Amino acid sequence: MTSADLGFSKPEPLLRVSALSVDYDAAGGEVVHALRNLDLEIADGESVGVLGESGSGKSSLALALMRLLPQTARVISGSVDYRGRRVSDFSPAQLRGMRGGEVALISQEPALALNPVLPLGRQIADVLLAHRKLNRQEVSARCIEMLRQVGFTHPERIMRAYPHELSGGQRQRVAIAQALICRPKLLIADEPLSSLDAATQAEILELLQRLKRDLGLAMLFITHNAGALAALADNIVVMREGEAFARGTISTLRASPDEYVQGILFPEKSLSNAAHKVGAIDSAPLLEVRGLSKRFVQNRMLSRKEFVVQSLEDIHLVLRPGSTVAVLGRSGSGKSTLARCLAGFETPDAGEVLLEGKPAARNAKNKAGAQRQGPHSRAVFARKWAEVQMIFQDAATSLNPRFTARQIVAEPLEIAQWKSEADRTARAMKLMAEVGLDPDWASRLAGEFSGGQRQRLALARALAAEPRLLIMDEALSGLDMPLQAQMVRLLMELQARHGLTYLYISHDLNFISLFAQEVVVMDAGRIVERTTPAKLAQSSHPATRELLEAGERLHAPGVEAAV
Amino acid sequence: MIRYLARRAGHALVMLFGVSILLFLLFQAAPGDFLSEMKVNSQISPETIAKLRVQYGLDQPLPVRYWQWVKSSAKGEFGYSFAYNTPASTLLWPRARNTLLLSIPALLISWLIAVPLGVLAAGWKGRWADRLFSGGTSALLALPDVLIAMLALLLALKTGIFPVGGMTSVDAQDQGTWAWLRDLGWHMVLPVAALVIGSLTIILRHVRASVREVMEASYMRAAEGHGLPRLKLLFGYALPAAANPLISLFGLSVAMLLSVSLLIEVVMSWPGMGPLLLEAILARDLFVVIGAVMLSTVFLIAGNLLGDVLLYAYDPRIRRQA
User: How many CB atoms lie within 10 A of CB A143?
Assistant: First the structure.
């Protein structure tokens, strides 16, 4: 019996999700809730946006709709109906027919969505052949037509190419062509823009808009980027911790008074209230860098010439307690080398680094001297130097995935042989709570945390040594915007509470004005400009202008709200 | 590609020289030589032994002996067998052919079974078939090759269907080419089967592990999300993506099969390199041992080279780098 027989005026939606709950089994018998009682409806031709930060269960939703959840996931309750038929009751053949034929999925990472050893033409054709009975000429004609539709001028060449021969944007186009070759009714796009650069994002967004219009496609667009949804979605669901937190059109949500909704729509705006400046300008410097130089020289065989790979030239820098200095520069400008010299990972060729007015042992001049002074002074040096801690760009690679959260955070304490095991554990729990992680997760493995949580874990580990200076080398660059905003807020709170000093290294200007008192711009190993965030925009130095313009380019149409 | 092959051939040549020098040094270091046992025999006078020593060139210093061997190898003789009084090559060639007669069919059969079965097993994750598979392969892996060969012999003895060892029947030569070939084939069945069983499990487990690892990749989930049929997913998408380490393993499995083959030949009295090498070592028949080891090295290098060439032909990414 259809709804029409019952006299309902409202037609059956294309896809209906009712009270869907999904759990993941984590290691150690723990259960992580990915989705909680989620309701969602998509009508023919309608686009629904799902907005949420990482870890809000967005991707689990996409997989649950396609019945593609990994084996560790369980559907606890609720149902997914496609055209009134329950997807969980589908036979394997029906399921295959739906996947790709009726509902298609494009995923986050186009580089990883395509098989690396098969020609692209075959990968598109296989999808078509899985759903339609066609001969070779028809298949090839349909593939070429589809590739032209997603904007390739030479589809024949793309058909023969392999994924590694294409750029990220091109690969995403191919993935879209592959998804749409069977003319599905619904396209589920899981963060289709997040791994692309700003210009390509705008291009792909435009393409999706055009395809939606031309093919009458219904779309479920999953993203953390509110700007993209403004251009694409009829209705938006804001997700938080697996639940639908708010619903509405982009304009009703923008008018919403709710702080969380505002935070996710305008990640930067939400910070301005929290912004407060600390750091006394006249106090004695915590760290002073005088005439620091470092060259990396590459010797090539059969050649007397030395090739200078990367260098620092005559760097002067003063960090006062409780302040934040931002070091900006594009990649290769020497920012990371500076950070590594300051943290003691590299020995500078010339110049000195003074911590509270005393020279650090890694200075070039007394390199030999430090060894002569014997183990005692080295221990003193190590204790002193624990006051400088570093957080790296990619928390995923700087944390051992087989360590539990407790082991990671307590590691610096163990190295310092700080108190007893129980004290260390208690302190690790406290530190986790301080960076906004649930101490109950202490026994989880590092690999089970999300990207943002891992960065918090790295922060907790750095704080364990009770540092006075934190060096953050692109520490936020790997996170999406709402998470970056949260981290900045957290860092500012910690700074106020513990009187921390920050050296914040970045290639973009996000949050700089809220966060830093002083900005230093580096180019080709030299400091080319010193200014304040407020005056940064008026700078005339070419290196600074380049950074500013790159920032503006990111405000491409449709994605402006994310930056 | 041709430059790449030339470079690899150059490496192989250098390696062969290294192996030969190492072998000479090792033999120098080992106590005794072919004539040592004659000394115990009171019927042979010390003068005769001294004369033989000069005749065989064993009185020469090591570099001279090595140079003599290189010259003889250049002529294709690979030194002289003391025990058989003929150039070593006349012993080595037919034996090498017999060994290849076992190894090559065993290699092909192993891979023809291991690839489809391993891929299917990768798709069985967590089911009873998977557990059965793991248990079965573990048990086979734990079985020593000698035992497999001896079980095969026992089977032949008890049933009487298969010949118990050897390569041909006594009268085979007289009954015409077809009958001879059929007789040879019949004799091959058990040694080849023993070889296949001995090498299959390792390959099988590698195939399953490689394919299963690829099945976790996000492009496999994407392909599943496009509704591709299961067999197409396994054989058309997972296997090609998992093939690289397997192609390298194919090259390595040549060496693996050869070493298992030496053992099985001895047990099942197949006139291949195995029994020859064993005899030569016991008799301290210097040049035959060196020749046999050098030939094995050549097979090994050839196997690896084959793997590399296949890899080059197969993977578009490697083609671009080379």
Answer: 25
Nearest residue on chain B to A109, judged by CA atoms? B218
Which one, of A481, A511, A546, lies nearest residue A228 by Cα?
A481
Q: Does the distance separating the beta carbons of B241 and A117 come in below 8 Å?
A: yes
Kindly give, in sequence order, each residue whose CB lies less than 8 Å from that of residue A479, ignoring residues fewer than 6 positions away. A54, A451, A452, A455, A487
Q: What is the pLDDT of residues A241-292, one digit of tens each?
A: 888 888 888 888 888 888 888 877 876 665 544 344 444 455 678 888 888 8
Q: Is A179 on the interface with B (CB under 8 A)?
A: yes
**Mean pLDDT of all residues in B194-208:** 90
Whether residue B189 contacts residue B182, with contact meaning beta carbons closer than 8 Å, is answered with no
Which residue type does A556 have? A
Q: Output DSSP code: residue B232.
A: I
pTM of the predicted structure, to 2 decimals: 0.65
Q: 206-245 in B: which are within 8 Å (CB) of A?
A: 217-219, 221-230, 232, 236-237, 240-241, 243
**Fold observed for domain A15-265:** Rossmann fold (3.40.50)
Domain of B54, in residue numbers: 2-88
**Are residues B68 and B137 located together in one domain of the fold?**
no
**How many domains is chain B built from?**
2
pLDDT for B62 equals 85
| Residue among A117, A120, A128 with most chain B CBs within 10 A, to mutate | A117
Rounded CA separation B291/B157 (Å): 35
Give the end of a domain, one of B88, B121, B145. B88
User: Same structural domain for residues B72 and B130?
Assistant: no
Q: How many residues does the structure list for chain B?
A: 322
| Interface confidence (ipTM) of the complex | 0.74
pLDDT tens per residue across span A3-30: 444 445 567 889 999 999 988 876 666 7
Give every residue of chain A whose pLDDT is below 70, as ranges. 1-10, 26-29, 54-55, 109-111, 194-199, 267-283, 297-310, 360-385, 395-396, 482, 551-563
Residue showing tokens 């109950």: A440
Instruction: List the CATH number of the domain containing B179.
Output: 1.10.3720.10
